[in-house]
Sequence to fold (227 residues):
Amino acid sequence: KQEVTQIPAALSVPEGENLVLNCSFTDSAIYNLQWFRQDPGKGLTSLLLIQSSQREQTSGRLNASLDKSSGRSTLYIAASQPGDSATYLCAVKDRNAGNMLTFGGGTRLMVKP
Amino acid sequence: DAGVIQSPRHEVTEMGQEVTLRCKPISGHNSLFWYRQTMMRGLELLIYFNNNVPIDDSGMPEDRFSAKMPNASFSTLKIQPSEPRDSAVYFCASSLDRVSYEQYFGPGTRLTVT
Fold:
């Protein structure tokens, strides 16, 4: 059964820092990996989707990488801003689970002004 | 598109009462997912429909939970009778039934059972 782990569970950084959030998964037979952002009391917003054949995806200050063989993904946030404060979740769609996602526990990010 | 629509946004009910949560997926999406999120257990998939047919309901916690999708634009998640431990945020998500496609989430329904 696929298991997704996110480290650290919480992170606090000063504004302007570049930071990396980590996601690991146990079964490398995946279709894709999706990074989400969740603000307190809100739903999930999709940030980036990386297909299994891709190594990375970029959107603005966000860059997500995927190393399928080692079961790892990272979300890099450049020049962090207070508005980036949220919980970041990664989820994988694996080949043994049809169209379903398995989520990690999330990393709660606080960017201090 | 308005995105995935859920109602109500908040629900407070007493133990033993029936609760019905509603979801309207994004038009054209043929996969629909119900999730539950709690502090203790994180985000859990409850049930997943494809073309209005339940595909996997292994995440439904008990017989008190049931879900239906009578047509492509509407789904319900019902809890009868509700218990305090059902208190959580319930999310609905939809996607195209293509493994390469993203899932899009609704704003969630915060359920409190007293």
